[in-house]
Amino acid sequence: MLELLASHACHGGVQRFYQHQSQVTGLPMRFAAYLPPQALQAGAAPVPALFYLAGLTCTEETFALKAQAQRFAAQHGIALIAPDTSPRGANLPHESDAWDFGAGAGFYVDATEAPWSKHYQMYSYVRDELREVVLASLPVDGARLGIFGHSMGGHGALVLALRNPEIFRSVSAFAPIAAPMQCPWGEKAFGGYLGAARDTWRQYDASELVRQGPVRFAAGILLDQGLADPFLATQLHPQIFEAACLAAGQPLTLRRHPDYDHGYYFIATFIADHLAHHARALGP
């Protein structure tokens, strides 16, 4: 059962926060949903929706509060759905010891290693359960869905889109962890959640997935990266994803921005471009 936690008028639409009992994670899960004014009109047709995946330490509230996306979503008539970044309340040993693993850091994978495998099933939660809950409860058109995200969430968005182009018609990302098998964050998360067999990690590495082909998004993938990002050299590796796209013939727009860092000032600066990118793909 979907529980409405809060609702706020916003740019002619409504910003809501929900909670529901998840069968996939076995715990209550929260998500944010912005419904544009076009979705609230009497007799209105369902609107397209963008799923936004946030980064390390974030919650379902972060994007709604910081990205300033609602104004542009209202202009395009697009709903915004933003889940939490991990299950909460599992009370697993060492779950909260580190900011880059465990609570707030689910990495959008389906964990196979104990004790994480019981609850940390974020890939299936986003792809299946959250999507089904949204389509069953909100005025959203399931045939017009896109996905985007930031950092860890950019990784998740790229992976979910590349593996499920029949579900997600468009994809973009801000400063994604673009080659997680080749960075400390990814190695830590994949080793902990998926085990030591690196071959099993490839299904969650966007650079590996796009390199395998075929072209999934003929209209292109949009990435934005700040050049003052402190994580660029060690964790993000957009150049690896760029090379993989080039080798596979996957159209990619990778924009590199001097002076911008990893935070939400960067995201808020370019969020309008991302909404427009998805609006073109999702149609009226």
Mind explaining what this structure looks like?
By secondary structure, the chain is α/β, with parallel strands linked by helices. It is 34% helix and 23% strand. The protein has helices spanning 37-40, 62-66, 70-76, 122-137, 152-163, 184-194, 206-212, 232-236, 238-248, 264-282; strands at residues 3-10, 13-21, 28-35, 47-53, 79-83, 140-150, 170-174, 221-226, 252-257. The protein has a 9-stranded mixed sheet, sandwiched between helices. Helix 7 packs parallel to helix 9. The chain is globular.
List the helices and strands and how they pair.
Blueprint (H helix, E strand, L loop, with lengths): L2 E8 L2 E9 L6 E8 L1 H4 L6 E7 L8 H5 L3 H7 L2 E5 L38 H16 L2 E11 L1 H12 L6 E5 L9 H11 L11 H7 L8 E6 L5 H5 L1 H11 L3 E6 L6 H19 L2
Parallel strand pairs: 4-5, 4-6, 6-7, 7-8, 8-9
Antiparallel strand pairs: 1-2, 2-3, 3-5
Helix pairs in contact: 7-9
